[in-house]
Protein: Glutamate 5-kinase
Amino acid sequence: MQLPYKRIIVKVGSNVLTRKDGLPDQERMEQLVSQVARLREAGLEVILVSSGAVAFGRSLISVSKKYDTVAARQLLASTGQVHLINAFARFFDRHQTLCSQVLVTKEDFRDRLHYLHMKNCFEILLQHKVVPVVNENDVISVTELMFTDNDELAGLIASMLNAQALILLSNVDGIFKGDPGDGDAELIEEVSDSSPVFLPFISARRSQFGRGGMITKTGIARKAAGLGITVHIANGTTDDILLRILNNEVKHTRFTPKKSASGKKKWIAHAGHTAKGTVLINEGAKAALTSARASSLLPVGIIAVRDEFQKGEVIRLLDEKEQLIGLGIAEYNSEKARERVGQKKQKPLVHYDYLFLNTEI
Ligand SMILES: Nc1ncnc2c1ncn2[C@@H]1O[C@H](COP(=O)(O)OP(=O)(O)O)[C@@H](O)[C@H]1O
Ligand SMILES: N[C@@H](CCC(=O)OP(=O)(O)O)C(=O)O
Structure:
């Protein structure tokens, strides 16, 4: 088998693994596992990000409406995840392939050291030909600590592991210019940097068991493509979908990747939620940073420094209109930065190697 990639992330949405009646679709799971096992056999490293814990839980236990949604989700996910991973282990076993369970929360991506520990765990699993099966740890991630959905988690893992491709499997063939249920709506097959923003076509409607919907899927796909990862959004209910995507034999939506970003930039790109401080920059600094030439952020272009941060922490860069233009790693702390505001001939606060601009996505 001729493979276009060495390492891929495959994200399977709840709907792909759930039948219309809400019960787990074990047959579909088995088919997906058999494709992954074949790809693994052919030398491709595959990381599965699988939703379905809540959907599996729903088939096992009913929760009274008197409980709040967080408690209900915890109960369903905690019981469902056991059955989800058991089914995966059983199906992979038939192909003499080992899989492993990795449950994560947004907090696990908080600092670079923690992030690198997690990356090392994936690397050792992959070196031993194990297929990691990842899901959000729904039992402990509540409200503000939650990922928007598993698409966001899959995007983070794709950039952390320097994957060449991210495949998002849902119950639609890709992004349509209109309602996917409307037979006349056209499928968008290619999205590149120069593609118009097509968000107006996408409704906030989600599939029966989905969490984020197509709007978040598109945002995540753009971000990953901006970091150099090819993204495929395709229908996980189509037979042999993974093999057909890799052989370019099926219509779906493909996001053309930009030049690959460095590992450090990939981490910064996803570290917005961990940012400690904010720096306001003037129009001149904004023009320099967003120009084609690689430029670092010098104190002469800084108008104000807000909140406290230490050297090595992530900071937000805002323009004069308070619009977020990017994220960077501070070369020194907020106290020193404040002393140097507006001064010439000072050391950059953010070096361009540790700067991630919104224009890069
Ligand atoms: N323009 C569009 N093209 C494709 N799907 C769309 C569009 N607008 C809204 N959707 C909805 O997005 C859903 C997929 O997102 P989501 O429910 O999060 O799926 P999953 O659970 O598989 O991640 C589709 O089932 C569809 O109903
Ligand atoms: N972690 C949850 C899945 C949440 C989620 O993102 O679902 P989906 O939108 O179907 O990918 C679960 O396993 O049920």
Summary: The chain has a mean pLDDT of 89. Residues 13-15, 170-172, 175-176, 180, 201-203, 205-207, 210, 212-214, 217 surround adenosine-5'-diphosphate (ligand 1) (CB under 6 Å). The radius of gyration is 22 Å. The first strand starts at residue 7 and ends at 12.
